[in-house]
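User: structure tokens for this one?
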Amino acid sequence: MKIRPILPLIYLMISPLWAAPVFIGTTTGKNNPSKGIYQADFNSETGILTVPVLAAEYQNPGFLALHPRLPILYACGQPNVPFGDGSNSVAAFRIGKDHLLKFLGEASVGGKGSCHLAVDGTGRTVAIANYGDGSLSTVSLGEDGMPGDVATRVLHQGSGPNKGRQEKAHAHGVYFDKANAHLICPDLGIDQVSVYSFDAATSKFGDALQPLTTAPGAGPRHLAFSADEKNAYIVNELDGTVISTAYDKGGFKVIGTQSSLPPGFADYNKAAEVEVHPNGRFVYVSNRGHDSIAVYQRDEITGVLALLQHAPCGGKTPRHFVIDPTGKWLLCAHQDSHTISVLALDPVSGRLGPAGSTVPSPSPICLRFVP
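Assistant:
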């Protein structure tokens, strides 16, 4: 009797069916081993992440964003051909069937030191936070997803009490709300979360609305909305806190502030990223220095947070992390140890397990799952 091989079938069952592509934004340069954007595959059944491979060469392709309809990935970075004004770039890459990237083109963002970007719900606009000069800009996107001209730019003004980090404005994040009616920008240098009306048809934002002003020296960095958008959570880099707010049509109302660190911890630390679990019950914040993920229970009615855990992140300097689409794993990018770790996440309790799968990855600072 002829015995049929079963290994190929087993392989199909345990690998490709569950593989989800992850793109990795990095910092390049002489002191960093990265060459551009990397790509890895994540198995949500086993929690295993493959070793990343280079998907496209580019200079400092830090934060990444996806087009809402087209297979295009955007990165803010440094242009292949320098612009006359010394500004940074937004680059577009087509995502191939092999998950490698094809460079499509780049455009000026009208500012310097770009550190964060977001694409609006219509796919007509990409917004960019420029840390270096403290500006916020929008760039129009064509029907083919290609970046075009700068539509609007504003230069934030002011400073804060931390003379080493708040000598001037430092725009650090950009976010569109679900209504696509407002553009929001946490600015670390001036202790404000700025809010602007937004017109998707023209890619332009209007006059500033009432901002959220944080505690002096807090240094707002990033924010995350709850799925119902009733709440927004703002992580403050400099004082290591997370602000809970009620959000309504561009307006913020503070309902609580919690430390991201354990009581008594007084060593060097910079908070980095904040994410809300897809089920809406938990909020996560990363600590660079303490090298941990702070876990909070979210009251789904009031939006108030209660600390649950400080989980070791598995590496050094957790600049960015992301929760996988199943809600069962947290992938953490460690900028200074050049690794990415996978932590098991219990969606019922919200708690994180110890770092499991850890792979080498050069200077990772952003992780982006492809739907």
